[in-house]
Design brief:
The chain has 7 helices and 6 strands. Helix content is 35%, strand content 16%. The strands form 2 sheets. A 4-stranded parallel sheet has the order 2-1-3-4, covered by helices on one side. InterPro entries: P-loop_NTPase.
């Protein structure tokens, strides 16, 4: 399969070491070469990378990092026995457990056309109710003009 590779590493030091090792093979971009993305597990909560086909998990990572438009594979560098007894589950994504008014407002500031759809396309999307609650709250405090859905001056300074 053609696609990108995402490697989850436990911390910054491991990312730096792996980057140095990969620099040995650094070549100009070519259609048959793959992009390798090194990341800490924190990024798994909030991003989806297009064309991602392979995830390499150095600890415990969900296989769903692969692009949702194609099948992907996850290679784990530990045994099932280790996984069962050594790891605790990751906490739920922040968008599921937090209020969404700040995130919704930031989406508006970034000129996201449909913030509801944008949030529902997140890796761990919140349900529609918290999104609607955030939208209503921001209307109620005067951050939006209801009929145009445009930010008011208050809405522009709230995130600061």
């Amino acid at each position: 399969m053609i696609g990108e590779i995402l490697v989850f590493l436990p911390g910054w030091n491991e990312i730096v070491k792996c980057t140095q090792l990969l620099e040995i093979f650094d070549r100009p971009p070519h259609p048959t070469l793959r992009k390798v993305i090194l990341s800490r597990s924190i990024s798994e909560r909030c991003i989806t990378i297009n064309d991602l086909v392979y995830a390499i998990d150095s600890g415990r990572t969900k296989a769903r990092r692969a692009d949702r438009t194609q099948s992907g594979e996850c290679y784990r560098l530990f045994t099932r026995c280790n996984q069962r007894f050594s790891f605790v589950d990751f906490p739920q994504g922040e968008m599921i457990t937090s209020r969404l008014d700040k995130i919704y407002l930031q989406g508006k500031l970034l000129n996201v056309n449909n913030v509801k759809a944008f949030l529902q396309n997140a890796l761990y999307p919140p349900s529609i109710e918290p999104i609607q609650h955030a939208e209503q709250f921001l209307y109620d405090i005067g951050a939006f003009i209801s009929h145009t859905n445009q930010l008011t001056p208050i809405g522009k300074i709230l995130p600061q």
